[in-house]
Amino acid sequence: MPNDTELANQVLVEERQYRWGSFDSADALALGLSIRKRFRSTPRHLKGNRGCLISIQTIAGHTLFSCTVGDLGHPTGSGDVVSLDSWSCLEGMVAVVKRVGHSSFYVEKGMSAMGKTPKQLGVEGSDVRICGGAFPIWLENAPCCPIAIAACYSGSSHEDHTLVATTIRDYLAKQKRPSETFAAPTNPEQSMFLPPQHMHPENPAAQGQSWFSPTMEQTQQPQDYDQSRFAPVDSPSYQHQEETQSTA
Description:
- Helices cover about 40% and strands about 10% of the residues.
- The chain has about 250 residues and is α+β, with helices and mostly antiparallel strands.
- It has a domain at about 5-175: Haem-degrading domain (Beta-Lactamase, 2-Layer Sandwich).
- A 5-stranded mixed β-sheet has the order 1-4-5-2-3.
- Strand 4 (about 135-140) and strand 5 form a beta hairpin.
- Helix 2 packs across helix 7.
- The N and C termini lie far apart (about 125 Å).
- Mean pLDDT is about 75; it is low at about 180-200 and about 205-220.
């Protein structure tokens, strides 16, 4: 098991690596639903009947996503942490990120590694809760401060932080996948934009013919066509015509 110093350094590496190209309400919705789905598949929820709170909000406090997993009054007790007091804890974790600009789990482990109190670190107050689960969302081209905060609270500091951090990591990896390239037609001689034959029957291209090839009307000869009229000068038929005209 890593010590507190190693865990704090690991969180710093995660914060430097998990940078967003952009972040909007659609990303917040997709990220929040992914966190919810992953928590619902954990043994803590399936076997331990644990609930959780999820919140994603901007650095100014505007709510982008908020939901609960479990109900406080459920007969099975699946919502044992879904209460007003738990929401206060979640907001206290978010307040830590707003003050420090780092993950609440980093503040918790860093404070423990240095042996200092919240008062010595300047994060003391009734509105803060120093435990893991709140993670800052940074933009790649905005190093001044985080743009938003994603937080999850289920009562386990390390597991809540791991859930949020790994979900952000996988979501960013999915966004950076190269898009599928456009597949060319298997038959290069057939144009993709060739209209069907029943749409343009008079169009030679629609019949699979080239625009520069003669059609049947151009190559078909009339029934009363006389080849001797267009025979070459040195041909026998042309000489026969001259002899007939001179005799007459």
